[in-house]
Design a protein that fits this description.
Layout lengths: L1 H24 L9 H27 L5 H28 L2 H17 L2 H7 L3 H29 L1
Length: about 160
């Protein structure tokens, strides 16, 4: 299951970059979206960082046990929660059914891993560090994609 989740992370990163390149090449007049969706994307861009800092404060104040695994869990799972609206945005923009399938898959992975005991069961030892690396790669990919798309399509 761990390998499947890491593979999904890589697929999301690749698909994210693929759709972003496609959107940046095409004419922006092809896509008509309202400002509400762009505001949602800007919120999605910052959501994983906000979630991480909220849990960091909670760990420092209240949850003193398993601090490392809790922070790793918050970081990695928040990426899947953030990717689901991004992939849904791609679906709304391009009407590509694969985007919708990936958005639903991202939600399922996030729901499955949201309980800490599921995350602890899947990611033990060094795989926690690997999940942090995948989380950083997912975040950077999403951040750059949203930045590029919002500057190209909104202006």
């Amino acid at each position: 299951m761990q390998l499947l989740i890491f593979t999904c992370s890589l697929v999301f990163i690749y698909f994210n970059n693929f759709v972003a390149k496609k959107l940046l090449i095409e004419d922006k007049k092809t896509y008509k979206l309202n400002n509400r969706i762009f505001r949602l994307l800007k919120l999605v861009k910052f959501a994983p960082v906000i979630a991480f800092f909220i849990l960091l404060v909670l760990v420092l104040i209240n949850f003193h046990t398993k601090a490392g695994i809790r922070l790793s869990h918050a970081w990695y799972v928040s990426q899947f929660w953030a990717y689901s609206p991004l992939l849904y945005f791609f679906y709304r923009l391009t009407r590509n059914k694969l985007s919708l399938i990936f958005a639903v898959l991202s939600i399922f992975i996030a729901i499955y891993n949201t309980p800490l005991f599921h995350y602890e069961h899947l990611f033990i030892g060094r795989s926690v560090f690997v999940s942090d690396i995948f989380g950083i790669l997912m975040f950077l990919s999403m951040w750059f994609t949203i930045s590029k798309i919002s500057t190209k399509l909104q202006h």
